[in-house]
Write a structure and sequence with these properties.
Layout lengths: L7 E5 L4 H12 L3 E5 L5 H8 L3 E3 L18 E5 L8 H8 L4 E3 H9 L3 E6 L4 H14 L5 E3 L11 E2 L5 E6 L13 E4 L7 H4 L2 H13 L6 E5 L8 E4 L7 E9 L2 E8 L3 E6 L5 H15 L5 H10 L8 E5 L4 E5 L4 H14 L5 E6 L3 H6 L1 H8 L4 E4 L15 H7 L5 E3 L2 H11 L3 E6 L7 H9 L2
Parallel strand pairs: 1-2, 1-4, 2-3, 4-5, 6-9, 6-10, 7-9, 10-11, 11-12, 12-13, 17-21, 18-19, 18-21, 19-20
Antiparallel strand pairs: 7-8, 13-14, 14-15, 16-17
Helix pairs in contact: 5-8, 5-9, 10-12, 12-13
Length: about 450
Protein backbone atom coordinates (compact mmCIF):
# COMPACT_ATOMS: atom_id res chain seq x y z
CA UNK A 1 0.00 0.00 0.00
CA UNK A 2 1.26 3.48 -0.92
CA UNK A 3 0.45 6.56 1.15
CA UNK A 4 -0.83 8.57 -1.82
CA UNK A 5 -3.44 5.87 -2.59
CA UNK A 6 -5.15 6.11 0.82
CA UNK A 7 -8.48 7.99 0.89
CA UNK A 8 -10.32 6.37 3.85
CA UNK A 9 -8.94 5.32 7.25
CA UNK A 10 -10.66 3.44 10.08
CA UNK A 11 -8.85 3.10 13.41
CA UNK A 12 -9.84 0.47 16.00
CA UNK A 13 -8.69 1.93 19.31
CA UNK A 14 -8.64 5.47 17.94
CA UNK A 15 -8.53 7.04 21.42
CA UNK A 16 -5.04 5.76 22.21
CA UNK A 17 -2.25 8.32 22.18
CA UNK A 18 -0.46 6.70 19.23
CA UNK A 19 -3.60 5.86 17.27
CA UNK A 20 -5.05 9.35 17.68
CA UNK A 21 -1.83 10.75 16.21
CA UNK A 22 -2.33 8.63 13.09
CA UNK A 23 -5.99 9.72 12.92
CA UNK A 24 -4.95 13.37 12.98
CA UNK A 25 -2.22 12.76 10.41
CA UNK A 26 -4.52 11.17 7.83
CA UNK A 27 -7.24 13.76 8.53
CA UNK A 28 -4.61 16.43 7.85
CA UNK A 29 -3.91 14.74 4.49
CA UNK A 30 -7.60 15.09 3.59
CA UNK A 31 -8.66 11.47 4.13
CA UNK A 32 -12.03 10.44 5.54
CA UNK A 33 -11.12 9.27 9.06
CA UNK A 34 -13.26 7.57 11.68
CA UNK A 35 -12.88 4.89 14.33
CA UNK A 36 -13.93 3.08 17.47
CA UNK A 37 -12.85 3.17 21.10
CA UNK A 38 -14.44 1.70 24.19
CA UNK A 39 -14.76 4.93 26.20
CA UNK A 40 -15.15 8.64 25.59
CA UNK A 41 -12.19 10.73 26.79
CA UNK A 42 -10.90 14.28 26.42
CA UNK A 43 -8.81 13.02 23.50
CA UNK A 44 -11.73 11.43 21.65
CA UNK A 45 -13.74 14.61 22.26
CA UNK A 46 -10.93 16.60 20.66
CA UNK A 47 -10.90 14.25 17.65
CA UNK A 48 -14.66 14.72 17.29
CA UNK A 49 -14.25 18.50 17.41
CA UNK A 50 -11.60 18.25 14.69
CA UNK A 51 -14.07 16.48 12.39
CA UNK A 52 -13.15 12.84 13.06
CA UNK A 53 -16.09 10.54 13.79
CA UNK A 54 -15.65 8.26 16.82
CA UNK A 55 -18.11 5.59 18.04
CA UNK A 56 -18.07 3.78 21.37
CA UNK A 57 -20.16 0.69 20.57
CA UNK A 58 -18.18 -2.40 19.53
CA UNK A 59 -20.70 -3.46 16.92
CA UNK A 60 -20.41 -3.84 13.15
CA UNK A 61 -23.65 -1.87 12.65
CA UNK A 62 -21.73 1.26 13.61
CA UNK A 63 -19.17 0.89 10.80
CA UNK A 64 -19.95 3.52 8.10
CA UNK A 65 -21.22 2.24 4.73
CA UNK A 66 -18.09 3.43 2.92
CA UNK A 67 -15.97 1.05 5.06
CA UNK A 68 -18.08 -2.08 4.70
CA UNK A 69 -16.36 -3.51 1.61
CA UNK A 70 -12.60 -3.88 0.99
CA UNK A 71 -11.16 -1.26 -1.33
CA UNK A 72 -7.61 -0.41 -2.41
CA UNK A 73 -7.93 3.14 -1.06
CA UNK A 74 -9.14 2.02 2.42
CA UNK A 75 -6.78 1.50 5.36
CA UNK A 76 -7.83 -0.33 8.54
CA UNK A 77 -5.53 0.20 11.53
CA UNK A 78 -5.80 -1.57 14.90
CA UNK A 79 -3.97 -1.51 18.17
CA UNK A 80 -2.88 -4.78 19.87
CA UNK A 81 -4.60 -3.48 23.01
CA UNK A 82 -8.02 -4.19 21.41
CA UNK A 83 -9.38 -7.62 22.49
CA UNK A 84 -9.26 -10.39 19.89
CA UNK A 85 -13.02 -10.97 20.29
CA UNK A 86 -13.84 -7.39 19.20
CA UNK A 87 -16.87 -7.46 16.88
CA UNK A 88 -15.46 -4.65 14.74
CA UNK A 89 -12.06 -6.36 14.38
CA UNK A 90 -13.71 -9.62 13.40
CA UNK A 91 -16.05 -7.92 10.93
CA UNK A 92 -13.10 -6.50 9.01
CA UNK A 93 -11.21 -9.81 9.17
CA UNK A 94 -14.20 -11.90 7.99
CA UNK A 95 -14.97 -9.48 5.12
CA UNK A 96 -11.55 -9.73 3.54
CA UNK A 97 -9.90 -6.56 4.80
CA UNK A 98 -6.18 -6.47 5.51
CA UNK A 99 -5.61 -5.02 8.99
CA UNK A 100 -2.45 -3.08 9.84
CA UNK A 101 -0.92 -2.44 13.24
CA UNK A 102 -0.19 1.16 14.16
CA UNK A 103 3.54 0.40 14.03
CA UNK A 104 3.32 -0.94 10.47
CA UNK A 105 1.62 2.25 9.32
CA UNK A 106 4.22 4.35 11.13
CA UNK A 107 6.90 2.40 9.26
CA UNK A 108 5.11 3.10 5.98
CA UNK A 109 4.82 6.84 6.69
CA UNK A 110 8.44 7.22 7.78
CA UNK A 111 9.90 5.02 5.02
CA UNK A 112 10.71 7.91 2.67
CA UNK A 113 11.67 10.40 5.42
CA UNK A 114 14.87 11.21 7.28
CA UNK A 115 13.70 9.54 10.49
CA UNK A 116 14.82 10.13 14.07
CA UNK A 117 13.37 7.32 16.20
CA UNK A 118 13.45 7.39 20.01
CA UNK A 119 13.12 4.07 21.85
CA UNK A 120 13.44 2.99 25.47
CA UNK A 121 11.46 1.40 28.27
CA UNK A 122 11.21 4.90 29.74
CA UNK A 123 12.20 8.41 28.70
CA UNK A 124 11.19 8.03 25.07
CA UNK A 125 8.12 10.30 25.10
CA UNK A 126 9.84 13.29 26.69
CA UNK A 127 13.03 12.77 24.64
CA UNK A 128 11.21 12.47 21.29
CA UNK A 129 9.08 15.54 22.10
CA UNK A 130 12.25 17.39 23.09
CA UNK A 131 13.98 16.45 19.82
CA UNK A 132 10.96 17.65 17.83
CA UNK A 133 10.89 20.94 19.73
CA UNK A 134 14.63 21.50 19.24
CA UNK A 135 14.12 21.09 15.49
CA UNK A 136 10.95 23.22 15.33
CA UNK A 137 12.20 26.01 17.59
CA UNK A 138 15.56 26.24 15.80
CA UNK A 139 13.84 26.78 12.45
CA UNK A 140 14.89 23.41 11.03
CA UNK A 141 11.34 21.99 11.22
CA UNK A 142 10.11 18.38 11.29
CA UNK A 143 7.01 16.25 11.40
CA UNK A 144 6.53 14.15 14.54
CA UNK A 145 4.49 11.30 15.97
CA UNK A 146 4.67 11.56 19.76
CA UNK A 147 3.53 9.31 22.60
CA UNK A 148 2.10 12.18 24.62
CA UNK A 149 0.55 15.62 24.25
CA UNK A 150 3.25 18.25 23.80
CA UNK A 151 2.68 21.19 26.14
CA UNK A 152 4.25 23.55 23.59
CA UNK A 153 2.03 22.48 20.68
CA UNK A 154 -0.99 20.97 22.50
CA UNK A 155 -1.00 17.92 20.23
CA UNK A 156 0.67 14.54 19.70
CA UNK A 157 1.37 14.99 15.98
CA UNK A 158 3.32 17.76 14.26
CA UNK A 159 3.40 18.60 10.55
CA UNK A 160 6.59 19.91 8.97
CA UNK A 161 7.47 21.29 5.56
CA UNK A 162 10.63 19.22 5.17
CA UNK A 163 11.57 15.54 4.98
CA UNK A 164 12.59 15.13 8.65
CA UNK A 165 10.38 13.00 10.90
CA UNK A 166 10.63 12.29 14.63
CA UNK A 167 8.86 9.17 15.89
CA UNK A 168 8.48 7.55 19.27
CA UNK A 169 9.50 3.92 18.77
CA UNK A 170 7.45 1.65 21.04
CA UNK A 171 8.99 -1.64 22.21
CA UNK A 172 5.60 -3.09 23.24
CA UNK A 173 4.70 -6.06 21.02
CA UNK A 174 8.07 -5.49 19.22
CA UNK A 175 6.39 -2.63 17.36
CA UNK A 176 9.60 -0.66 16.80
CA UNK A 177 10.97 -3.36 14.49
CA UNK A 178 8.87 -1.86 11.67
CA UNK A 179 11.14 1.22 11.70
CA UNK A 180 14.42 1.78 9.83
CA UNK A 181 15.67 5.12 11.18
CA UNK A 182 18.52 7.39 10.14
CA UNK A 183 19.12 8.37 13.78
CA UNK A 184 18.05 6.16 16.69
CA UNK A 185 18.11 7.11 20.37
CA UNK A 186 17.80 4.35 22.98
CA UNK A 187 17.19 5.80 26.44
CA UNK A 188 16.82 2.64 28.55
CA UNK A 189 16.40 -1.12 28.33
CA UNK A 190 15.10 -2.06 31.79
CA UNK A 191 12.95 -5.17 32.11
CA UNK A 192 9.33 -4.42 31.18
CA UNK A 193 6.49 -5.93 29.13
CA UNK A 194 7.50 -9.37 30.36
CA UNK A 195 3.99 -10.55 29.42
CA UNK A 196 5.19 -10.11 25.80
CA UNK A 197 8.91 -10.88 26.06
CA UNK A 198 8.99 -13.54 28.77
CA UNK A 199 12.31 -12.33 30.20
CA UNK A 200 14.76 -9.43 30.11
CA UNK A 201 17.08 -11.24 27.68
CA UNK A 202 14.44 -11.34 24.94
CA UNK A 203 13.63 -7.64 25.51
CA UNK A 204 17.35 -6.82 25.16
CA UNK A 205 17.50 -8.87 21.97
CA UNK A 206 14.69 -6.81 20.44
CA UNK A 207 16.44 -3.54 21.26
CA UNK A 208 19.61 -4.84 19.61
CA UNK A 209 17.58 -5.76 16.53
CA UNK A 210 16.11 -2.25 16.48
CA UNK A 211 19.61 -0.75 16.68
CA UNK A 212 20.74 -2.97 13.80
CA UNK A 213 17.99 -1.54 11.57
CA UNK A 214 19.51 1.93 11.42
CA UNK A 215 20.07 2.86 7.78
CA UNK A 216 23.62 2.62 6.39
CA UNK A 217 25.56 5.71 7.42
CA UNK A 218 23.04 6.41 10.21
CA UNK A 219 23.68 7.19 13.87
CA UNK A 220 22.96 5.37 17.13
CA UNK A 221 22.78 7.42 20.34
CA UNK A 222 22.29 5.44 23.54
CA UNK A 223 22.60 5.78 27.28
CA UNK A 224 26.03 4.84 28.57
CA UNK A 225 26.22 1.34 29.99
CA UNK A 226 23.56 -0.28 27.82
CA UNK A 227 24.64 -3.60 26.23
CA UNK A 228 24.82 -2.15 22.72
CA UNK A 229 27.72 -2.11 20.28
CA UNK A 230 28.95 1.12 18.70
CA UNK A 231 27.20 4.44 18.50
CA UNK A 232 27.53 7.53 20.67
CA UNK A 233 26.87 7.31 24.39
CA UNK A 234 25.39 9.85 26.79
CA UNK A 235 24.95 10.10 30.55
CA UNK A 236 23.87 12.36 33.40
CA UNK A 237 27.17 13.08 35.18
CA UNK A 238 29.40 10.29 33.83
CA UNK A 239 32.50 11.63 32.08
CA UNK A 240 33.22 8.25 30.45
CA UNK A 241 30.27 8.82 28.07
CA UNK A 242 30.73 10.59 24.73
CA UNK A 243 28.44 13.34 26.04
CA UNK A 244 27.35 14.12 29.57
CA UNK A 245 25.72 16.72 31.78
CA UNK A 246 27.85 18.45 34.38
CA UNK A 247 27.50 21.31 36.87
CA UNK A 248 23.83 20.39 37.42
CA UNK A 249 22.16 22.79 39.83
CA UNK A 250 18.80 24.27 40.81
CA UNK A 251 18.39 28.05 40.76
CA UNK A 252 15.02 29.53 41.76
CA UNK A 253 13.32 26.21 41.03
CA UNK A 254 14.86 25.79 37.55
CA UNK A 255 17.38 23.12 36.56
CA UNK A 256 20.63 24.34 34.94
CA UNK A 257 23.45 22.24 33.50
CA UNK A 258 26.42 22.23 31.13
CA UNK A 259 26.60 19.92 28.11
CA UNK A 260 30.03 18.43 27.47
CA UNK A 261 31.37 16.36 24.59
CA UNK A 262 34.68 16.13 22.74
CA UNK A 263 33.33 18.38 19.98
CA UNK A 264 30.92 20.77 21.72
CA UNK A 265 30.50 22.41 25.13
CA UNK A 266 27.33 24.36 25.96
CA UNK A 267 27.30 26.11 29.34
CA UNK A 268 24.49 27.38 31.58
CA UNK A 269 21.61 25.62 29.84
CA UNK A 270 18.35 26.42 31.60
CA UNK A 271 15.69 23.72 31.39
CA UNK A 272 12.08 24.72 30.82
CA UNK A 273 11.03 21.59 32.73
CA UNK A 274 12.17 20.06 36.02
CA UNK A 275 13.81 16.76 36.90
CA UNK A 276 17.29 15.26 36.90
CA UNK A 277 15.99 12.54 34.55
CA UNK A 278 14.96 15.27 32.12
CA UNK A 279 18.47 16.71 32.19
CA UNK A 280 19.66 13.28 31.03
CA UNK A 281 16.96 13.20 28.34
CA UNK A 282 18.15 16.63 27.19
CA UNK A 283 21.74 15.35 26.78
CA UNK A 284 20.42 12.60 24.48
CA UNK A 285 18.33 15.08 22.48
CA UNK A 286 21.24 17.50 22.13
CA UNK A 287 23.58 14.75 20.97
CA UNK A 288 21.06 13.68 18.31
CA UNK A 289 20.26 17.13 16.89
CA UNK A 290 23.94 18.12 16.80
CA UNK A 291 24.24 15.44 14.10
CA UNK A 292 21.84 17.63 12.05
CA UNK A 293 24.06 20.69 12.58
CA UNK A 294 21.69 22.56 14.91
CA UNK A 295 23.69 25.39 16.49
CA UNK A 296 24.48 25.40 20.23
CA UNK A 297 22.80 28.82 20.56
CA UNK A 298 19.54 27.52 19.09
CA UNK A 299 19.70 24.38 21.25
CA UNK A 300 20.12 26.48 24.39
CA UNK A 301 17.19 28.75 23.53
CA UNK A 302 14.93 25.84 22.58
CA UNK A 303 15.54 23.93 25.83
CA UNK A 304 14.65 27.03 27.83
CA UNK A 305 11.33 27.30 25.98
CA UNK A 306 10.52 23.57 26.15
CA UNK A 307 7.40 22.99 28.25
CA UNK A 308 7.45 19.21 28.31
CA UNK A 309 4.67 16.69 27.84
CA UNK A 310 1.30 16.40 29.54
CA UNK A 311 1.51 14.01 32.51
CA UNK A 312 5.33 13.96 32.47
CA UNK A 313 6.43 15.77 35.65
CA UNK A 314 3.63 18.24 34.98
CA UNK A 315 2.94 20.98 37.52
CA UNK A 316 -0.82 21.12 38.15
CA UNK A 317 -0.74 23.48 41.14
CA UNK A 318 2.22 25.65 42.07
CA UNK A 319 1.41 28.12 44.85
CA UNK A 320 3.14 29.06 48.12
CA UNK A 321 0.71 26.75 49.95
CA UNK A 322 0.58 23.74 47.63
CA UNK A 323 2.72 22.00 45.01
CA UNK A 324 0.93 19.33 42.95
CA UNK A 325 2.78 17.34 40.27
CA UNK A 326 1.25 14.70 37.99
CA UNK A 327 3.34 12.04 36.24
CA UNK A 328 2.79 9.04 33.97
CA UNK A 329 5.48 6.86 35.60
CA UNK A 330 4.39 3.21 35.86
CA UNK A 331 7.68 1.28 36.21
CA UNK A 332 9.80 1.24 39.40
CA UNK A 333 12.72 3.02 37.72
CA UNK A 334 10.44 5.74 36.35
CA UNK A 335 8.95 6.19 39.81
CA UNK A 336 12.44 6.40 41.31
CA UNK A 337 13.47 9.13 38.85
CA UNK A 338 10.29 11.11 39.48
CA UNK A 339 10.32 10.88 43.28
CA UNK A 340 14.08 11.56 43.48
CA UNK A 341 13.67 14.73 41.41
CA UNK A 342 10.79 15.96 43.57
CA UNK A 343 12.82 15.38 46.74
CA UNK A 344 15.79 17.23 45.20
CA UNK A 345 13.54 20.17 44.36
CA UNK A 346 11.64 20.25 47.66
CA UNK A 347 13.83 18.62 50.35
CA UNK A 348 12.02 20.30 53.25
CA UNK A 349 8.46 19.37 52.20
CA UNK A 350 6.52 16.25 53.17
CA UNK A 351 5.65 14.27 50.02
CA UNK A 352 2.23 12.64 49.69
CA UNK A 353 1.81 10.34 46.67
CA UNK A 354 -1.24 8.72 45.09
CA UNK A 355 -0.17 5.75 42.96
CA UNK A 356 -2.23 3.56 40.65
CA UNK A 357 -0.41 0.36 39.60
CA UNK A 358 -0.80 -0.46 35.89
CA UNK A 359 -1.31 -4.10 34.77
CA UNK A 360 -1.46 -7.18 36.97
CA UNK A 361 1.58 -8.73 35.26
CA UNK A 362 3.76 -5.65 35.75
CA UNK A 363 2.70 -5.38 39.40
CA UNK A 364 3.52 -9.06 39.93
CA UNK A 365 6.85 -8.96 38.08
CA UNK A 366 8.15 -5.82 39.84
CA UNK A 367 6.38 -6.01 43.21
CA UNK A 368 9.59 -5.73 45.26
CA UNK A 369 10.83 -2.83 43.11
CA UNK A 370 7.54 -0.95 43.49
CA UNK A 371 7.52 -1.51 47.25
CA UNK A 372 11.10 -0.26 47.60
CA UNK A 373 10.60 2.92 45.60
CA UNK A 374 7.22 3.77 47.13
CA UNK A 375 8.88 3.62 50.54
CA UNK A 376 10.71 6.81 49.45
CA UNK A 377 7.58 8.97 49.93
CA UNK A 378 6.31 10.26 53.28
CA UNK A 379 2.68 9.25 52.83
CA UNK A 380 1.11 6.93 50.27
CA UNK A 381 -2.42 6.48 48.98
CA UNK A 382 -2.60 3.38 46.80
CA UNK A 383 -5.39 2.82 44.27
CA UNK A 384 -6.37 -0.61 43.02
CA UNK A 385 -4.53 -1.99 39.97
CA UNK A 386 -5.65 -0.64 36.60
CA UNK A 387 -6.13 -3.79 34.47
CA UNK A 388 -5.99 -2.25 30.96
CA UNK A 389 -5.93 -5.27 28.62
CA UNK A 390 -5.51 -7.91 31.34
CA UNK A 391 -7.67 -10.19 33.46
CA UNK A 392 -7.02 -10.38 37.23
CA UNK A 393 -4.28 -12.67 38.57
CA UNK A 394 -4.98 -14.44 41.86
CA UNK A 395 -3.01 -12.95 44.73
CA UNK A 396 -1.90 -9.90 42.74
CA UNK A 397 -3.50 -6.73 44.06
CA UNK A 398 -2.60 -3.45 45.74
CA UNK A 399 -2.69 -5.04 49.19
CA UNK A 400 0.18 -7.27 48.07
CA UNK A 401 2.28 -4.16 47.43
CA UNK A 402 1.26 -2.55 50.71
CA UNK A 403 2.28 -5.69 52.61
CA UNK A 404 5.81 -5.49 51.16
CA UNK A 405 6.37 -1.87 52.17
CA UNK A 406 8.01 -0.53 55.36
CA UNK A 407 6.33 2.90 55.21
CA UNK A 408 3.97 3.55 58.13
CA UNK A 409 1.66 6.12 56.51
CA UNK A 410 0.09 4.02 53.76
CA UNK A 411 -3.47 3.07 52.81
CA UNK A 412 -5.60 1.77 49.95
CA UNK A 413 -8.47 4.02 48.86
CA UNK A 414 -10.91 4.30 45.99
CA UNK A 415 -10.46 7.23 43.63
CA UNK A 416 -13.39 9.06 45.23
CA UNK A 417 -12.05 8.49 48.74
CA UNK A 418 -8.57 9.64 47.66
CA UNK A 419 -9.96 12.98 46.47
CA UNK A 420 -11.92 13.34 49.72
CA UNK A 421 -8.76 12.60 51.75
CA UNK A 422 -6.75 15.23 49.89
CA UNK A 423 -9.58 17.74 50.29
CA UNK A 424 -9.53 17.12 54.04
CA UNK A 425 -5.77 16.94 54.60
CA UNK A 426 -4.54 19.50 52.01
CA UNK A 427 -0.93 18.20 51.71
CA UNK A 428 1.77 20.74 50.90
CA UNK A 429 3.42 18.52 48.28
CA UNK A 430 1.32 16.06 46.26
CA UNK A 431 2.23 13.62 43.47
CA UNK A 432 -0.25 11.60 41.42
CA UNK A 433 1.46 8.91 39.41
CA UNK A 434 0.48 6.02 37.15
CA UNK A 435 -0.50 5.13 33.59
CA UNK A 436 -4.12 4.03 34.03
CA UNK A 437 -7.12 6.31 34.53
CA UNK A 438 -5.60 8.15 37.52
CA UNK A 439 -5.54 11.19 35.22
CA UNK A 440 -9.27 11.55 35.89
CA UNK A 441 -8.32 12.71 39.41
CA UNK A 442 -6.19 15.62 38.18
CA UNK A 443 -8.94 18.22 37.82
CA UNK A 444 -10.79 17.29 41.06
CA UNK A 445 -7.51 17.41 43.00
CA UNK A 446 -6.54 20.69 41.35
CA UNK A 447 -9.86 22.16 42.46
CA UNK A 448 -9.55 21.08 46.10
CA UNK A 449 -5.94 22.33 46.36
CA UNK A 450 -6.65 25.60 44.55
CA UNK A 451 -9.87 26.20 46.51
CA UNK A 452 -11.73 26.54 43.20
Amino acid sequence: MELHDIKRVYLIGIGGIGMSGLARYFHHLGCIVCGYDKTSTDLTNQLHNEGIQVVFEDHADYIPMSFQKPCSDTLIIYTPAVPKDSHIVNYFKSHGFELFKRSQVLGLISKSSFTIAVAGTHGKTTTSTMVAHLLKASGNDCSAFLGGISSNYQTNVLYGKNNVMVVEADEYDRSFLTLFPDVAIITSMDADHLDIYGDHAHLTESFKLFASQIKPGGTLVHKNGLPLDGGYTYAFEDETADAHASNVRIIDGDFYFDYNSAAVNITDIRMGIAGTHNVENAVAAIEAVLKLNISPENIKAALASFRGVKRRFEYIVKTPEHIYIDDYAHHPEELRACISSIKRLYPAKKLTAIFQPHLFTRTRDFADGFAEVLDMVDELILLEIYPARELPIEGVDSQMLLNRMHLQNKRILSKEAAVAAIASEKPELLLTVGAGDIDTLVQPLKQVLSNE
